[in-house]
Amino acid sequence: xxxxxxxxxxxxxxxxxxxxxxxxxxxxxxxxxxxxxxxxxxxxxxxxxxxxxxxxxxxxxxxxxxxxxxxxxxxxxxxxxxxxxxxxxxxxxxxxxxxxxxxxxxxxxxxxxxxxxxxxxxxxxxxxxxxxxxxxxxxxxxxxxxxxxxxxxxxxxxxxxxxxxxxxxxxxxxxxxxxxxxxxxxxxxxxxxxxxxxxxxxxxxxxxxxxxxxxxxxxxxxxxxxxxxxxxxxxxxxxxxxxxxxxxxxxxxxxxxxxxxxxxxxxxxxxxxxxxxxxxxxxxxxxxxxxxxxxxxxxxxxxxxxxxxxxx
Length: 312
Hints:
It holds the Pfam family EamA. With about 300 residues, the protein is an all-alpha fold. Helices cover about 80% and strands about 0% of the residues. The two termini are about 20 Å apart.
C-alpha cells in the first residue's frame, strides 16, 4: 500500500485546497484582504514553528542554501501568492469560477518555468498536450460566463494570475536550490517570514485591525484556512514536492475544482451536469497523458496483485 501513499496525499491536498476558496470568500466579508492572509499565517506559522521545534533536532536553517529556500518560500509561495490571490478575490467581479480557471494555469506556468530552470523535469510534447487537456477540463468544469474572463475586474484577474505565477515560480526554484532542509523547518520559517511580509504590505495599503469584524463565521473561516489549508496543506505539499517534482505536484490545481464540484453536489444540492461530467473526463484524460509512463509501469503490479488474490 506504500506505493499509493502519494496518491492519497495528493487527493487530500486537492480536497483541502479546493475547499479553501470558499473559506477565503467567506472570510473576506469580515477582514481586509491582505490582513486576513497575514493573520491566517500568524496562526499557521506559530503552530508549525512549535511543531518543527518538537520534531526536528535542529530547527534553525544553516548556510546560504537553506536560507535561500526560506526566502523563496516566504516571498513567493506564501506572501506573493496569498497577497495577490486575496486582493484579487476581494473584487466582486472575480467569481469563484473565474478564479478557479486562472489559478489552474499554475501547472502550465510551472512547465514554462521548469524549461528555464529544471531541464531534467521538462515534459514531452504528449505531456504538454495532457496539461492543456486538463486545463480545458477545468474550464468546462468551472463554466465561466463567456465574456466574464475578458470584461470587468481585469486588474483583479491579473492579480490572481500573478498569484498563480508566483506559486509556480516558487515551486520550481525550491527544486533548483541545492540545499536539504526538513519539511517542517522550511514550512514553519516560510510561514512566519511570509506573515511578516504580508503584515508590511497590509500596513502599506492602509488596512487596519479596526476594519475586522469578528463573528463565528469569520473565526471558522480563519481557523479552517490556518489549520487545514495552511498547516496541513503545506506540510503535504512540501512532502509531495520533494517526491513528485514541481510539475506533477502543481497538477493539484486541476483536481481541486473537482472536489469543489463534489462538495457542492453533496452539501448544497448542486446538480452534476453534462458539462461537469465532461470536465471530469477531460481532467482524467490529462492525467493519463501526463502520467502515462507511471501508469504503464504500475499496470503489471496491479495485474500480479489481482492474480495473487484470485489464487487465494
